[in-house]
Prior knowledge:
four-stranded mixed beta sheet; single chain; Protocatechuate 3,4-Dioxygenase, subunit A
Amino acid sequence: MNNQVDTGGNGFLRVIVRTAGGALPVADATVDIYGSDPQNGNTGLLYSLRTGIDGLTPPVELPAPPRSESLTPGTPTPFARYNIEVRKEGYNSVTNLGAPVFDGIVSAQPVLLIPTVQGDATEERIVESPETGNALYGGNGYE
C-alpha cells in the first residue's frame, strides 16, 4: 500500500512503540502511516505495519523535500510531515500528527501507549510534533 507522490528526495521513518513510561516495548501493535500534505497529493494511508517483539517497525521509505532545500534561507520547510496512528488491544490508541521525515535520514518516532483500565472505555491521545521537527525524534511521544 503506497499512495506517495515523489517530492524529489526520500527519507525513512521508524516507529518505536513502548509502554510503562518507555521502559517496555509493545509487540504486535498496529502502526498506520498517513500522508498529511494535500497540496502535493500526499494523503491517505501509505503503510500499515506491525511492531516486532522489540516494539519497532521496520523503517519505511517516504518522500521528503530534497536536502538541498534546507541550505537556502526562505525556502519551504525542509522536511515532509506524516501522521501516525498506533493501536493495540488493551491500550489507549495514539495519533501523532506531523511526524517529520528528512531526505536521506532515518527518523525515529517514539509512541507511548498507556494501558486501559479494565471496565473503562478506551481513549485516544493526539500528539502534535513541534513545528521545527527533529531528525532523531519527530515529536514528544512520551507525554
